[in-house]
Structure formats: structure tokens, C-alpha cells
Amino acid sequence: MSSIRRRRSRRRAGLAVTALAAALALTATACNGDEESGDDASEQPGEDGSTGDDRLQELLDTLPFEVDVDAWMDGGWADWDRDTWLREVGDFFNPIIQDLWDQDRMGEAEDPDQSIDDDQIEEDPNAPEADSPEADRGITDPEPAPVEAVAVDTPYTEHGAPIGKVFFDSPEGPMVCSGTVVADPNAPGQSNLVATAGHCVHAGSGGGWYRNLSFVPAYNNNGLSADELASAPYEEVAPYGAYWAEYVSTTQYWIDNGTMTGGDGAHGDFAVMSVVPEDDSGLSLEEQVGAALDVNFDAPAVAGLGDVTLYGFPAGEPYDGAMMYSCVDTPGRLSMDASMPVMYWAGCTMTGGSSGGPWLRTNEAGEAELVSVNSIGPLESTWLAGPRLDVEAQEVFDHVSTVEAGG
Fold first, then answer.
1. What SS3 class is residue 262?
2. Residues near 45 by Cβ (< 8 Å), separated by ≥ 6?
3. What are the tens digits of pLDDT across the range 155-180?
4. DSSP 3-state assignment of 133?
5. What is the pLDDT of residues 168-222, one digit of tens each?
6. Pairing state of beta strands 377-378 and 115-116?
7. pTM reported for the whole predicted model
8. What element of type H or E holds 60?
9. Nearest 5°: CA angle at 340, between 338 and 344?
């Protein structure tokens, strides 16, 4: 992938353009600018006489609505129209804008407040234990006691390398979630897959796919404060660089039912991204990070899960999104739709921004595996819930893995 530099007021940046729409990859070939020149390479013509901005505009012209280059680089929401918002599986479109997510813009990203009113939950203090996931459906245990989140040891490259932050643009501005590198059976040892929450990539029943989706593993590797991060070298903020979503999918349940408040759609709040390195390093995400976690789509009944560790980068008060935190608890059951697999329910004080972060348990082989992702929590931030990953979640995973493999 070649790159084109882009005009920016804060620092020199680049533009590399790729897109994937309706499962068809469209690549714009860009001319290489002279790094020592003060000229803007995005304005320099290529062999066909067009500039980098022209080629990006050509890609944007394939969309069912009008948007110009500068507007898209900033999210492009000035022309936002719910009737034309790309929303169906296969419609994802995400041109790579190199260096868009610099320290300033990352710091501006806010958490999507995926909160729920406790009045929506009907607890059953006498709910019996179940010996199968099917028997767990429709059952809600008593609310878990709060568990105080603790800071993860640094450097994250040694204590949380596969976990990072997901950045994206929404109609409300730059947003941030968490995500995890997961193993790809179609690319052993070379996975480019990231698991996160559905509400971190798609607005659910009221909208469509978010824009400028990017993943930064081991974000803020040394655990600097938010103030220190603002002036830190980029290599400390993003030790492995940034990876842009080339293809994304979430559950049809989330697309049809998901809402940003109230918990609707939370039972299907799961997504998988296939990513590519912004710097075109040639290495897969798993090779760069050195690890990828297996996903268990057939975990035991909740009674057999044991302790689970939740990770994320909480950004809502009292946190500021700079550091990775974790909670350890034994999950209970939460159900808001008895037709769907039960949700896991654990005490944890992490806030918004931790959405999409992994729920990890140790399996019988003594290895860590991902069984859920952070989805919803209450206004008081005393617990978190995540969907049980079942048949539909595996279909999402398999679909993205197949697309990544060129199937």
C-alpha cells in the first residue's frame, strides 16, 4: 500500500487509501511524495494526472450520498442522513487516513456511554443453577457486588499486548472503545482479527457503520498520565502502531435491535474487525503484538465458568482513558431477552471506554481464552455485563475470518 501525505495543522501526516465495500476491495494507488520536500504530496499528480485527494474522492463517489475529502477526514457527518447511512453487513467502508489518530485526536475521543437503568432488570434471588447454557437462558441472578478496578502492570507490551483501544468517528465526534487481538484459524500465527463490542463499530437500529475505525494495541505502553501522553513520542502512545479496519461485521441482532442507551441489543453486542497496519509494515497484527487469544464460542454454563478477568481502558469519570484496568469476579446471569443466550454479569467499576474489552478465563488446558466483551453497565458503574458468545457470534467471527482469507 503506497502512501500520500496530507495537509494537517498540527504535524505532517500522510494519506493511504484503501476501501472495502460490499465485500469488494477498492484500492487507490497513490504516488509517493518526497519526504524532504515542503510540497504537499497529496496535491502532486500521479501517472494518471490525478492527486491523492482525487483518488480518495473517486472512492467516496461510490457511496450513496455526497461527501468531500476534507469532510470525510473529519468524520464526514455534516451530510449525515439516517436514510443513507451504510448499515448492512457487507456495506462497511473505511478509507485509511494515515496519522489521523495522532495524540491530540486520540485524547479528544470520548467514551460511548452504554448505560442501563437498573429498573429494567428483574432479578430472581431464587434462580437455580443450570448445567447447560440453554438452561441459563431467561435467568437473572441477584446484582453482583462492586469490584474495584485495578491498574494493569506496565509495560502493556508484556502484561496486555493483545489488548488496546478502538477509535472511531460518530455523529457526536471522535469516540473510543477497547478491543483484543484474537486468533484466526484461517491464518495461524498471523491473525489480523480484533474482537470488540458491536456498539463500537455500528450504531444499531438507529444508524449504521461508524467511520475511521482504527485499533491501537498496547495503547500508552508505559501507563503515562493523560497530561504526559499529550506530549509523549508517538511510539510510547502506540508501540505497535495503528491498524485500520479493512472489514467489520457484527451480529444481525445488534443491527436490528441495538440502542445506545437502555441495553436493547446487548445480547448480540459483539463485533470482529479485520485490520491492516497503517504503516504498511507487511507484518500481521499477531506477529507485531506477539500474541492472539482464542475465542470460546461454546463456554460452559455460567455456573461452570469460574473466575473471569475483565479488561479495558475506562474513559468515563473517575477515569480518563489513559490507562488499562482490570477486574476479577465470578460472573452471574443477566437476561433481558429469554430467546437469546444469557449475558454474563460481573462486579466491576470500569466505565465507558472499556466497552469491547475482553472477558478472559483460564480453560482446562491452563490457557487464557476470550468468552465475552464488555457491553453495558449501570449509571453508577458498579458492574459490567457482556454477551455469551454463541452461534451468531461465531458466524460473525467466521464471516470476517473468511473475508480476511480471501474467501
1. coil
2. 31, 51
3. 999 999 999 999 999 888 899 999 99
4. helix
5. 998 888 999 999 999 999 999 999 999 999 999 999 997 888 989 999 999 999 9
6. parallel
7. 0.85
8. helix 52-60
9. 90
